[in-house]
UniProtKB/TrEMBL annotation:
Keywords (A to Z) from UniProt: Electron transport, Iron, Iron-sulfur, Metal-binding, Transport
Recorded superkingdom: Bacteria
Lineage: Bacteria, Bacillati, Bacillota, Clostridia, Eubacteriales
Role this protein plays: Ferredoxins are iron-sulfur proteins that transfer electrons in a wide variety of metabolic reactions.
Keyword set includes Transport: yes
Protein name from the UniProt record: Ferredoxin
Organism: Clostridium punense
Annotated InterPro entries: 3Fe4S_ferredoxin, 4Fe4S_Fe-S-bd, Fe-S_cluster_ET
Stretches assigned to the 4Fe-4S ferredoxin-type domain: 1-29
Length: 63
């Protein structure tokens, strides 16, 4: 499973890193980013929760 953040849509609300810090963090540009190449199995649920909770739908989590 992979995760991606659309930087053009990200509003830096902080929800994704607070829900799933193993996968998301703020980067130097102030926007959220993905910190892993592959989402660890134990973090899949929180990554999907972050995707569903993103107010701008900037996160995509896929197989």
């Amino acid at each position: 499973m992979k995760a991606a953040v659309n930087k053009d849509e990200c509003i830096s609300c902080g929800l994704c890193p607070s829900l799933c810090p193993e996968v998301f963090e703020f980067e130097d540009d102030g926007k959220a980013g993905v910190v892993v190449d592959v989402v660890p199995k134990e973090s899949e649920d929180c990554a999907k929760e972050a995707e569903a909770s993103c107010p701008t739908s900037a996160i995509e989590v896929s197989e």
